[in-house]
Design brief:
With 285 residues, the chain is of the alpha/beta class. Helices cover 27% and strands 28% of the residues. The protein contains seven helices and 17 strands. A hairpin with a 5-residue loop joins β15 and β16.
Amino acid sequence: MPEGRFTAACVQMRSGRNAAANRDAAVAGVREAAARGAHYVQTPEMTSLVERDRARLFDVVRSEGEDETLSALRDAARETGTVVQVGSLAIRAGGKIANRGFLIDAEGAVTARYDKLHLFDVDLPSGERWRESATYAGGVCAVVAPTPWAEIGLGICYDIRFPALYRALAEAGASVLTAPACFTKQTGEAHWHVLQRARAIETGSFMISAAQGGRHEDGRETYGHSLIVDPWGRVLADAGGCEPGVILAEIDLSAVADARGRIPALEHAKPFTVERVGRSEGASA
């Protein structure tokens, strides 16, 4: 592979309540991606388990050292010689659970960890109600991690709605940004593609985001459409729906310098204050 180029893959999944089956599907996806030429493979948020019932979740979640999916994906990275980004796993963290992503090098070593910063506490028009903060402990630190080809900024799902995070990752040196997700079908249909493309365009970076897709055993429905987007906002690969599978795209990192040279938004950003003007308090309409 020429310098500054690599092949990236997303493994789209439909994880359920059986952690062993999910683990096997993730490993099979990594192996398929590697067999098709991938150097870097990303799995989605909640790779090992999609479970909205809090009691069930706490019954099966283990510590990082005991997590069999993490161990299996470390073995898969070593076996295939690929860098594997585990979108996230549910990891026991005291009285709550960490929604934690991992970067694993081609020797199977964990080189970075990232706990999801922004927790999905929303009420959707469909009647869906989500309170991730009731179960999960939010992270406190953004993470940029090295790979043999590029610095990668780690994000997870709802993080994609916070452009300041992705700008900070790019300003810290990331040329590839990520948002592996378990995006709801309703919000995905409305916003998934535009958010991914916007974060790529704003920062002049590649966006790589593996997704969960379809109807899950716990009753939720996720959008799928794993995406790889270039720094000019062009979609290089789209899973095209919610079925499990693997997508690949060639990443040419010269496109980052090209996009940032054409639109140097990162360089042009400047500090500012906000002045609020208008009617005084209590003014009539």
